[in-house]
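Input.
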Amino acid sequence: MFLSSITDRGAMPALEKTLAYNEARLEMIAENVANIATPGYRAKQLDTHAFQRSLREAFDARRRDPNTPFKVEAGDEVHTERSGHLQVTPSRRPVQNILFHDGTNLAIERQMADLAETGMMHQTATTLLRGSFDRLRAAIRGAVG
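Output.
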């Protein structure tokens, strides 16, 4: 109880949700790439801008009332369960005027760009969360300075 009251403040909840989102997005990209040669396969997608917008809204709600649960809700793709865990459900990517001869709409170049973007977001969130835990560990040991 005491530890969760410490870790549920500041940027930690957002970083935790960001890592969960990135994990789901990496799984989705892997599935898309694995199905690159599957005729008729429609790529899955996650709207990163909607997720980031919902993070900002959760921060704003927390700023207005510090006791507000940090809930991230981004359409049908992302929502926070009652337990506080992030549930991510990718949607099918629309055709966007490009349909290949085998009926797919999957471009490997787009998947690799999404992979690089997600990797950078994941690395940044991991670094920030590690710094938060390092400061918490130092405070517990009494080595704040």
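The chain has a mean pLDDT of 85.
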